[in-house]
Amino acid sequence: MDRPSLGAVAIGRNEGDRLKACLRSLTAVCDLVVYVDSGSSDDSVEFARSLGVHVVELDQARPFTAARARNAGFERLVSENSPPEFVQFVDGDCRVEAGWLQAGLTELSGDARLGLVTGWRSEIHPEASVYNAMFQMDWHRPAGEIATCGGDMMVRTKAFREIGGFNPRVIAAEDDDFCLRLGKAGWALRRLPVLMTWHDADMKSFGPWWKRSMRDGHGFAQVGQMHPPHFQRERLRVWGYGLVLPLIFLAGLLLFPWLSLAVLMIYALSWLRTAAGLRRRDLTRGMAIRQAALLTLSKIPNLFGMLTYYRRRLSGDDMKIIEYK
């Protein structure tokens, strides 16, 4: 039996060598590859074309979002006379693992209920920084039936069309929104116990981590508002640890010093409890303590991101991406 047709959409901006590795990992297997560029100033577009990859350059007059880029890539794919039956979406800072594309095709072809399959993403250099190591911890999720996944996914073209693709106004957690709508439409989603992509975060300083955490908070608020009760636990933690406790701490400094001390103890207990949980996942003591400290602190930038969404929603401002690279 002939192999089902497979297209791929890679998205990126100034990804350099990471994009080159990404596209090379796709062109050897996929019938058609589209690269969607969001205003790169490097040689991304020229390199993609040198491989025979179709390029879509997004209009810079409109706000860039990953959702908008993926939709544009999909539309370019299906504009062909024989559009692919399945589409692999991948971020330009990821290299697709050899063997994944066939594994995903086999799973989707064998189960007509499946609208999407995904696999495991792994960090290329988790040892390079505590931030990279945190990504590595977050990428590895249990295999099986799932409700949501990240942006690296293989999707049935029919399912993508049925739900209208990604929502271009969602600047963060757009993949959660897409997956939730796919599930509500009756499609099954599955994570395979197979290595899918190698991610290169290359995050080595506090500033980019802070901005990415702000973007996460924006996603908690926006997608949580669109799909209650999704992200409800995350939002409650942000309100509690990012707003209520800091306000109580400040009030305690003015009125009751013991109250401020109690707040510090709550943060310390949260930090220690998180570190203990990370230790159970085989992290070294030092790495667990460092990651737990950042996870405890992350509620502050999460709060700023959530407030940014609420301000934009009330004022009618554009939902612009929060840059962190």
UniProtKB/TrEMBL annotation:
<dbReference type="Pfam" id="PF00535">
    <property type="entry name" value="Glycos_transf_2"/>
</dbReference>
<keyword id="KW-0472">Membrane</keyword>
<dbReference type="InterPro" id="IPR001173">
    <property type="entry name" value="Glyco_trans_2-like"/>
</dbReference>
<keyword id="KW-0808">Transferase</keyword>
<dbReference type="InterPro" id="IPR029044">
    <property type="entry name" value="Nucleotide-diphossugar_trans"/>
</dbReference>
<keyword id="KW-0812">Transmembrane</keyword>
<comment type="similarity">
    <text>Belongs to the glycosyltransferase 2 family.</text>
</comment>
<feature type="domain" description="Glycosyltransferase 2-like">
    <location>
        <begin position="149"/>
        <end position="269"/>
    </location>
</feature>
<feature type="transmembrane region" description="Helical">
    <location>
        <begin position="238"/>
        <end position="268"/>
    </location>
</feature>
<dbReference type="GO" id="GO:0016757">
    <property type="term" value="F:glycosyltransferase activity"/>
</dbReference>
<dbReference type="Pfam" id="PF13632">
    <property type="entry name" value="Glyco_trans_2_3"/>
</dbReference>
<protein>
    <submittedName>
        <fullName>Glycosyltransferase family 2 protein</fullName>
    </submittedName>
</protein>
<feature type="domain" description="Glycosyltransferase 2-like">
    <location>
        <begin position="14"/>
        <end position="121"/>
    </location>
</feature>
<keyword id="KW-1133">Transmembrane helix</keyword>
<keyword id="KW-0328">Glycosyltransferase</keyword>
